[in-house]
Amino acid sequence: MKKSVVIVEMGLRDGLQNEKTVLDADTRVEFARRLILAGTKRVEIGAFVSPTWVPQMAGTAEVVQKTFALVKSGSIPKKTEFSVLVPNERGMMDAIASGVKEVAIFAACSESFSLKNINCSIDESFKRFEPVMALAKKHKIKVRGYLSTCFGCPFEGRVSEAKVVKLAQRMHKLGVYELSIGDTIGVADVGQVESLFRKLKKVVPVKKLAGHFHDTRGQALANILAAYKLGINVFDTSLGGLGGCPYAPGATGNVATEDVVYMFHGMGVKTGLNLDKLIEINPWMAEKIQHPLPSKVGKVGRLK
Ligand code: HMG
Ligand code: MG
């Protein structure tokens, strides 16, 4: 097993998209700044989705522009990689105009969730990716892929492994550089994670697979460990365990970045993140969104 993992910070997108308090662009830029100064190397900084559907992500262009200005001024390191979520060609055009060099596309593994989340079937969503991928090629933009509801759907229940594997192959063929496997409603257990990732590794190179676990049922750390033991080295996490998906009823936040970092550092696995600095962000963010964050380590800190 590799002695280091890559953490992709979701707080600014998957985290904030489900919060009642909508944060303005300056607060989101400050959040990004604090995360990056805590060592974050990859950040999903926002989403070019419909502001009618997800008002929390309105102002993403301003967040990108102001964060890039901080990079330019040398206030935050140049090495940070920023990505934005795009559902269609319109979102991709906005992403290109903003100057980002990476986008993330997303498809569901269940028809009902696809309809509720992006108002179209799974097949239609893949059709929408075609112009997005063509624009990405033209503008030399990296594309990450997500598959949602890989372990269960809030409307249809269990999702078959065969369906997820087929869609993973389809997404991989599109040319995404990484494929993040989403437990959107935090329903997966270790048995399911081992079984699905073993099958996925046969169709997508393991280096290209990432795990995206929500912690709704408290299984996310165990699931990450199970995936890590199968060779998965990239994990999506959210500072404090913020958020969830507004179109997945009952879904809570991604697994907390602090909790994941605590676990890996305890095992001697490097994350490149500074746990104390991450913990410092926790009360600041709790004040901004006006409620405590679910992270365990973020709340009590570590033994000094
Ligand atoms: P729609 O209403 O079907 O769109 O929404 P439409 O094509 O009919 O257009 C309606 C209006 O929206 C038009 O404006 C379009 O221009 C505009 P009008 O002519 O009426 O003035 N529009 C847009 N505006 C801004 N940005 C755009 C855009 N596209 C069209 N990109 C749509 C379809 C996909 C836009 C909508 O359903 C949407 O934005 N959905 C996003 C939902 C979302 O962000 N969900 C959360 C992210 S997914 C997730 O959290 C899961 C994940 O974390 C992994 C996991 O946990 O499993 C990734
Ligand atoms: Mg998610």
Automatic annotation (TrEMBL):
A Pfam family hit: HMGL-like
Metal-binding is among the record's keywords: yes
Keywords assigned by UniProt, alphabetized: Lyase, Metal-binding
Residues in Pyruvate carboxyltransferase domain copies: 5-279
PROSITE patterns: PYR_CT (PS50991)
A molecular function GO annotation: hydroxymethylglutaryl-CoA lyase activity
The family this protein is said to belong to: Belongs to the HMG-CoA lyase family.
Protein name stated in the entry: Hydroxymethylglutaryl-CoA lyase
